Amino acid sequence: xxxxxxxMVLYKPIPRVLFLxxxxxxxxxxxxxAHLVLEEFSRHGSPVYFHDKSILYSPxxxxxxxxxxxPTSYGYHDVDRPLSLTYLDTISMExxxxxxxxxxxxxxxxxxxxxxxxxxxxxxxxxxxxxKEWPLGRAFGFDMVEVNLRGLRLVKRKGCTLFEWFDxxxxxxxxxxxxxxxxxNEDGSVENLMYWTxxxxxxxxxxxxxxxxxxxxxxxxxxxxxxxxxxxxxDIPEITRFYHNLFxxxxxxxxxxxxxxxxxxxxxxxxxxxxxxxxxxxxxxxxLKNLLARVPSITFFVTGVLDERTLKYIKKFRQIEPGNHSxxxxxxxxLNLNQSVAQIKMAESVIGxxxxxxxxxxxxxxxxxxxxxxxxxxxxxxxxxDHLNSFQGAxxxxxxxxxxxxxxxxxxxxxxxxxKSDWFFYQKIYADNFPEDEKVESQEAYYSYLSTMWEIIKExxxxxxxxxxxxxxxxxxxxxxPLLRFIDDVKKEKTAWxxxxxxxxxxxxxxxxxxxxxxxxxDRILYRFHNPGxxxxxxxxxxxxxxxxxxxxxxxxGYFFSRxxxxxxxxxxxxNLPSGSSAVEIRVR
Length: 589
Description:
alpha/beta; Rossmann fold; TIM Barrel; 3 domains; eight-stranded mixed β-sheet; 28 strands
């Protein structure tokens, strides 16, 4: 229980998480392991931010985060040496050590900082990676030497709750020569949560060290937190459970589990209805008449060549939030930067300034992302979600990191990933060889897909961005019916927030700026909130306790309710947070 004791201090913050990556392909697509961090921490209300390693040169920026995750295995970076986290200089490592000393929680993979930026292996100089030339060793609490894993296996320590689900041994005995850096000269404060052993010798496999006010964990191989379908050692539920436990440990609470609801008023998940232009006037009218009778707002991405009559018709609805869909719907992969900028500006001259953009054919490019970022767009919606057949796209908003030329760009452009569009089901709609029975099958397949994706995303507490076209789903009442039936199903649940992409963007940005701290004190749970901006309505925290709570609001107004969660009662505390500081005290009877 040493870890819990170490972490019990007054008023622990709901953690803010920094995950270092350059994206898996340089085109804004998150690595699979980063998805799991985003989804698990986001569902608990912890803001997650992605950045390349250049942020390590900014101590001021590091202070904004409570947990930093530094993956070093393949798959997390689109190129090797320039962006790899095994190549660090002394300044960046010293800044990271100081951040840990001041209270941060670092999780890093083996070989982190092993090499200099010029490519020199720090280990080679004396056959040891010591704390003199490898400052991170001070935070981790040891030096490192190379060890041959042949004949060794990785075993979990008894009572290791962070890795409670892993089988022991985690990894069978290594049969081939495989050299790896492992700890030596450990400080007395180092805990070995897992170790490499042949039954006689032991080396730290996963270590945890208290350093100053903070903690540093080193995984001898980050494959422990990399999905097995992508070459890692763990399955998705196992990795998710680790980050779930890490979230709880970072709070250090004993009587209560708590977090921040990702969506306003304690809603379970979000549904956003979006359209791309295309079709006849009658198809627009049928689509919008039915959708706007059911949902409060939609986002409609339109091109600059949309005929004036249709554009005027769309603009008359206050419920419609316009988005930029380029000027004449080209493949952006065929455009350079100047041509990408021209497409955006030409469309803007017709439809006006918008906060959001969607690439034609969802064909996103680094040049296009750069044009959007420098042109002041707030969000983008093209990197499609596919959690059924692969692991692309995200079900929570995230800031885009992408490569442009020789530069790596960490932007504040928020990605709101859509699911597959209606085209995938209705693409034969104008073909002569589309029999009636196949039409019915395609309609039912679309309804089934929408419902299945919603169940997955709702369970994860994420956002589902539906993507349709008047020319497909609005072709007739029969083709529109599956979407309308699905929307009616969601509304009956009464636990979903139905919003435009702009509303989601604005909520996500403002909610992530709120600082939340929590403390247990006898029979009380104390929350402190700091809001640096204007009043935020509907901000919500959840908590699990045994007993009946009573709530006292201090400098804010609100209420609480409960609903079933995993067979138990979970309470949600909903507030209108004013600018500045406020607090809530909960007594449990």
